[in-house]
Every structure is written in structure tokens, then in C-alpha cells.
Amino acid sequence: MHIEQARASLGRQSSAHLGHQALVRTIAVVALVYGVYYITWRATDSLNFQALTLSLILLCAEAWGLLNGLIFAFMTWDTERRPAFSLKPGQSVDVFVPTYNEGLDILEATLAGCQQMA
Q1: What distance separates the 2 farthest-apart alpha carbons in the chain?
Q2: How many other C-beta atoms are found inside a 10 Å radius of the C-beta of residue 42?
Q3: Does 57 reside within a domain?
Q4: Could you give the number of structural domains in the chain?
Q5: Which of 28, 49, 75, 93 maximizes the CB count within 10 A of its CB?
Q6: CB 117 within 8 A of CB 85
Q7: Does residue 38 lie within any of the structural domains?
């Protein structure tokens, strides 16, 4: 029953969230289209043949930045707000706290936070 309720609430996103998402997507598309235009212009019209090695290194760095932007836009394109997770009565979770040369104050704060999860 909880799964159906969660799916129904996921389908009802606020209009403000949808408007914000549309604005962010529009800005991302405009930025990426301009980035492709810029890299094309750099590769065809602005290479310095007197310092070709340096010019190609700079072009590759700029293309790498554009690729990172494309990947970031792809990864964040379809975000949706999910309801908070809650355990059904009678269920529990185990928390594994890996440590390596941690200070006692950090470990105590971490374990106190784990106890607050209940």
C-alpha cells in the first residue's frame, strides 16, 4: 500500500517545481548549444597556427569542459522530489560505521547521530 501512495505522490509535483525545472532545462539547453557553437568556431576559425600545440591544448581543455557540462546536464535532467523514506513498524536497519584512525570526538558524534536515527 505504501508503494502505491509513494508513486501517486511522485506524479503530483507542484507547478512551481515544474516551472523551475523548465527554466533550468531551457538555460541548460541554451548553454550547451552555445558551447557546441563556440567549440566549432574555435576549431574552425580561431586556431593559432604559429603556436599550434598550445592552441590545440587549449581547444581540448575547452572541449573537455563542454563534455563535462553535457554529462552534468544529462545526469541532472530528470530530477524529481521523492517522499521521505520511513520504515514499516517492526522493521529495523543496521548501520555500519567504518573508521580508520578517527578521533574519539568524531566517532562519538557519529555514533550519537546513528542513535538518533531511530
Answers
A1: 73
A2: 15
A3: yes
A4: 1
A5: 28
A6: no
A7: yes
